[in-house]
Amino acid sequence: MNQISNPDKWFVIVNPNAGNGKGKKDWDRISEIFSKEKISIEHHFTEKKGAAKIIAKEAAQNGFRKIVSVGGDGTLNEVVNGIFTQDTCSPAEFTIGLIPVGTGNDWGRMFGIPLMYQGAVAAIRECKVIRHDIGIITYYTGSELHKRYFINIAGLGFEAVVVKKTNKQKDKGRSNQAIYFYNLLTSLLSYKNTEADIIIDGKRTTARVFSINVGNGRYCGGGMRQTPDAMPDDGLLDITVIRDMGKLEIIKSLKLLYDGTILSHPKVDGYRATNLRVESKSLLYAEADGESLGHTPAEFSIIPAGINIVYGTKIIQ
User: Does the pLDDT value for residue 4 go beyond 60?
Assistant: First the structure.
């Protein structure tokens, strides 16, 4: 293996399309800040969806153990998946930093990672780290079983429908918080709740569900708090099950998703567990960290203290 000569060097993976092209447009400015802060880097641009995973794996093979993701939550998810699918060393040897240039930037909210580039680079220079749990979702695409790692929040049901619509628009170069909210409202018109078997740490219940969210983090969808009490380092997944709500009731309750009180609703159940399995006759579709996946049956588990992450001005307690 080719070991790098400088163990403090950061490998920076840049998604040029993140934030409607901000990754490419702002890279020179970000690179200049790295230089002024005297942070040694090597950088690589992604060229297509999924490339950050491959690049992260190659960086690991070349001896890098410190990686910065310049992009949104999807880019960070790909980097995490690259680290957890490489076989050079344990993922726990890696440290990940983030320069947020996406449209949602939900994961960074939890750790006070500044949206201003100067502040985000300063956080990397200071390199305050915690050990962060990593979630795993297994799911199907047709008859094929797949596995995906996630660092923030994964979901089944309505959230995945909205994410899929939003990602299609992202691929066409249209993406912002207003579009996400528009997709949320319009998806309600045709969405139908689904009966599902929910098995939490071996205990089975059956319910008609609107959505199920599973989180290490608290924020998704540009500030919604689907798993409002999740902790990134407690070794547990927070699970929020929104049961059989009608469309008007959902609209009336949207503010609860943003102010962190969703678990107070009588049709919302919250759990903490290490394993969740969801089975349904009518397929429930899945997403993880804003990336569209397949469908049920799906299973969620956790890797405690799986990776080191750089935090900014705070850690939510």
Answer: no
